[in-house]
Amino acid sequence: MNKDSKNIYILGISCFYHDAAACLLRNGEIIAAAEEERFTREKHDSEFPKRAISYCLKEGSIEAKDIDYIGFYDKPLLKFERILLTCLSTFPRSYRLFRNAISIWIKRKLWIREIIRKELDYKNKIYFIEHHLSHAASSFLVSPFDRAATLTIDGVGEWVTTVCGKGVGNKIELIQELNFPHSLGLLYSAFTYYLGFEVNDGEYKVMGLAPYGKPIYYSKIVENLMDIRDDGSFKLNMKYFAYHYSFASTNKEFDKLFGGVPRKPEGELTQRHKDVAASIQKAIEEIILRMLNHLYKNTGLKNLCLAGGVALNCVANGRILKEAPFKNLFIQPAAGDSGGAVGVAAYIYYSILKNKRKFVWQHTYWGPKFSEEEIKDYLEKNNIPFKRYQEKELFQEMAKLISEQKVIGWFQGRMEFGPRALGNRSILADARNKENWQKVNLKIKFRESFRPFAPTVLEEESNKYFDLNIPSPYMLLVAQVKRTDIPAVTHVNNSARIQTVNRKENHFYYDLIKEFQKLTGCSVIINTSFNIRGEPIVCNPYDAFLCFMKTGMDYLVLGNFVIAKKEMTKFSKEDIDKINNPFKIG
Fold this sequence. Notes:
By secondary structure, the protein is of the alpha/beta class. It has three domains: 9-142 and 339-352, ATPase, nucleotide binding domain (Nucleotidyltransferase, domain 5); 178-331, Nucleotidyltransferase, domain 5 (2-Layer Sandwich), CATH 3.30.420.40; 372-578, Alpha-Beta Complex (DHBP synthase). The strands form four sheets. A nine-stranded mixed sheet has the order 13-21-20-14-15-19-16-18-17, with helices on both faces. Strands 3-2-1-4-5 form a five-stranded mixed sheet. The longest helix is centred in the middle third of the chain and has 29 residues, at 271-299.
């Protein structure tokens, strides 16, 4: 493979903390982007993303030597400085944390440049960009706006936890920041820990649990845990927290304030836990709105770009849409660390190399796809019975099965980039049947019964079902449900996390729902990610078949091929375990 000399290739890399990912740009356009976890099958895999990189290079038809620039999404030496100084300031309480961190940093994290060169045999330029600048670039530089305010919020980058800024053309200016340990992301994670969920994974469970409670602890949070200013900036009262010196997030003072010790994972969820969840959710929303009001006054800009892990809080995003003074909103769909790979690559091409912006984010389908021949060959070699449909017939038959309360594993086209399945790696069911909420939660996803499901709705029908007047293609906005005929996607507080779909973005998924509408009069179906609890979203046909066979799904659709569970009785667990994965990368 020889690189065309007219093309500039840039590889963005995010790794070694959580959600490792890679993104390849060609002349500023995204060619491919994927998280490492999808290939290794280890959820939130943080290791060097060699498989994701291999996929990106394959998609771009180039080799590592053809890459002009590589970017890493933060500055490791600054992060190491923060860890050292924090551990020294809290010693000896921080001894165990310090011992663990030193070992990891000395072995790997201080040598990222050398690791990149060795893994890829790469000799060209490598850039290291500050973490929150990568976040801001991941949103603004791919947004439809020439001018916009930017807000990035997460746990912590190097030192910074929150940044207000603005973008104009291909330049980003960071205006105001908050530094560690004062962090909205770490505050929310502390409550995630206290409520018995896994930090950096279970925050969305806190968000889903919150509507079951009342924010009766809100005043305790804002009066005891933090000092909030009018502009939304704040300082945390660190006597209640342990994350700066321990593997735990909270301490005994925190326990006293909220009336009990942290809930054990899988322990009983009491009304107190639900009220605590409701309280921290309200606090986060109120602080973000204060920040945005201040940012609007400072910049006067009508457009807003959001990124950072906290931008995945779609309940807060719903309030931003309704209550913040900005007119237009763009949220990076891969707002967490994986999106940093996009941000650093875009920053190099547009801001460092000073190219005029031309790329606008249109969808999230940047991952691998598999041809009809590959899928058929896999099914036939493993004696998996299937039926092949023509496109229109497929949509009609699957719409009919969904209306008959069958649950469908839907595998199409290129895999989504980011944490949401948006119709290419999805599990689908009938939103009109309230029983499907529990059926899909408990028998298929094997997850907590309180967690809601998202609806996908035809974009032009969205306002008939939801109090939402703009498209929501990335499942990042929550709005109130207007009707009573879609109970399986209506949360306990009458809200839903909505995905809208139009035919231009995803004609396969759109046409399926359109057929369902013709058959039932309903334009909404359940869409949840194609995986089970504790596993990443499926990447290839092998992953999809394995997940299908582990669960209570009724049908699996791989492209135009349909597999019925009722015809799988000849497959024992031993038979399934013997099936090889011919789609492995790296």
